[in-house]
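Supplementary notes for students who missed Thursday's class. We covered one full example, reproduced here. Read the sequence, then the structure, then the short commentary at the end.
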Amino acid sequence: MAQEPLGSMISTPLQGGAITRTERALLPAGSFSWAQNIRSEHPGIKKRKGQRRLHTIGDSHNASYNKVLTLYQFEKSEVSETRLFAQMSDGDILEATNDPPTVTTGAFGSESHSGSTGQKAASWGVLGDVLVHSNGVDQHQLFSGTESYVDKFIVFKGSATPPDVPTEGEDYSDEVSGSSGSAVLDDLPAWASHGCFFIKTPVRATSFKFTISKQNGNSATLTCDYRKSDGTWAEVSGGTDTTTSGGATLQVTGGTFSFTAPTDEKPHYQYGECGWWYRFRTDAALDSEVEISAVTFTGLWQDLENVWNGIPQDLIEVWVEGTDVWYNHSSGAIDLDALASGNKILLFCTDPIEAVYWDVGSTPNTNTGLTMTIKYTDGSGSFTTVGTVTDESDGLTKSGWSTFQRQTTARPVQYEGTMYYAYVYEVTFDGALSADTQVGAMIWPVFDIDEYGKSRINCIWANRVVYSFDKWQQYLYVSAQNAPFVLNGEDYGILEAGDGRSNRCVAATRFYNEMIVWQEEKGKEGGCTTLFQGYSPTTFGKLLLSSRIGGLNAKSHAVVDGVLTATATDEEIKTLAFWLSRYGVCATDGRTVHIISDEIGNYFDPSKDECIRRGYEDEHWLEYDSSANVLRIGLVSGSSATVPNVFPVFDITDKTWSFDTPAQELSCMTEVSAGSGDVAVLQIGGGVDDGFVYQLNYGSNDVNTPIDTYVDIVLNGSGLYITLTEYTIRCVAKDVGGIDVTIMDNNLENTRLKDLTLSMAPERPGQTYRRHRKTCEITGHELVMRLRNAADAEEMHLLDLGLMVKAWLGR
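Structure (token representation):
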């Protein structure tokens, strides 16, 4: 019976990936039906590197081990500070004791923050030097770490106690924030003589570090005050001043003033900015030469608050009570000519307020000694007093703020026939105003972040933080530029993702100058992928990339630069975004969406047993591994899995697939800057159920478990019987180890090659490569050659393979 050779013995470089969606018998000859634990050398394939534990004790909770939900490295730019965080399944955020590649003896690290249970995989971002964390069940968290420069440093030397909203002082903010120069505190008076300095921070602080270029020599004690929720100053508790030496504060450079974090602290407005202000005062004057060259602070994890942007707002309108009549005025010109004692001024506001600024211009009230009373509507239709009013306008005799404690029970009303709802405040005086009094009024609004609900995701885009919440889940709230706490004012924006459906936003990322947002896939209509463009609320616009393909969670996307893509006429280098959908692994260049996982599409095919499992969308993950230019993926596959158990790998250069089988399965992955060694960037992953964080791409084993690496190469003649008569294999020479060769005949191992191992050792010392040429006579209509190395601490690097195959034309 005639045989026909199907090719020559010239070896072909090994290159390619697994195709699992197609029946093996239908794959072209030379295809890989399976590729496990390999990395491509383009061409050539080698065994992947292993992984090791970065600490010796796993994190446990209630007698079981925690799952690592996400990993994130917080790196700051203005100061040298790096922190590695692990979000754990019990709600804790742990901070690494050591940065990789150092292995910690003991646990991964200590608890940095404790959150609620039931968290989703968090999204993380950094704006400036402030970390933003969103875990899906708590309010968005912000954290600044240590050694952050303060926002403001202002020295006050006045003839009287600073007003509630001070404006006078010497601003040394730049001098103490890394620039040249120093803040000058020469002869700063004691508090009793109206001397102090104010510091503002972007988040709440628990300590301040002072770099002192000229030390104070006078005996003096330093005290720190904070703003309470009732609008007053109060001394911090537990204040400890390590700048003191010999009874003189601000003597020891590098010393700190630390204190217990107040529980009733609130932002305050002064010097034209709203934020967390601290007042430092002494009980005695400082000496004649005191200078501070830098001030940094330590922050704490805190809930997102909606902090006023510091720009006073106009009122909707103002009503002034006359004799049997009400007069209507605009915010800028309120006629109070001889307003009778007890007659009311009604201020209609879009938001609740805690202060009113009165601009008396050239027409102030000249009747001195009047007391102002302010009331607010609580929703019942009646007015309730705000309590004590600190009236810096002195009864409208001069321009100034009238401040009071914010009222949590203030409610908007439709007052006396108005066509809108507003917060209404009633202002009265205990005496008559002078004739011709005319003023303008502006307000200091307050905002309640709980109106939005709890956190979903965040994204840093256009020098802003973009937040989503569990109320109105298709909407995104874009903070003011470089102001993560400001969700108000003209520089704040609201975006709606998708096509009008209210599917929740599950992930977002920067993409070029744009932002991509993915929504949850629900029902037969799926989800949406939306591209947002612009740089300010007035220029924001959106492009709907897909109204069917959405995303899964916040740890299932990656943006990769420098991807070579082919078109009908040319090849281009592009930046692409990759992500997981229930329909497959997707990619976009910002214009169209492509599914790139056809070769392994069975894992996304609901008719297959290995399809990803419904209800576990929060568990899948995708991350870019720059060490091998691959995407690493974790899928919850099959009807019983609850954590990732299948780990596809997409080679971005070859556009091919393989599969990892880590002995310690992973729930997430990220890249981090190395804390030591010669490699700049390392890859780390989190264990699915053992409480460990692992360094990836390290060593030859998965901890102590050998890596089982092999490729299955399909040999067939399109239904004809074929005979493999000879083969040649070349590999990179290794000091130890071998290549196990197996031939599968219609899925059964052919015993003629049983236990055949080809040595990888060089035939002569100094040789680079090892070659084997073998003869055999194996016949079948569906043959598979398996090349394997599963030995402990061994490497394998295959170069090429040559096959002599003959077809039986008449059989």
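Commentary. The domain at 3-48+707-808 is CATH 2.60.120.260 (Jelly Rolls). The mean pLDDT is 94. If anything here is unclear, bring it to office hours.
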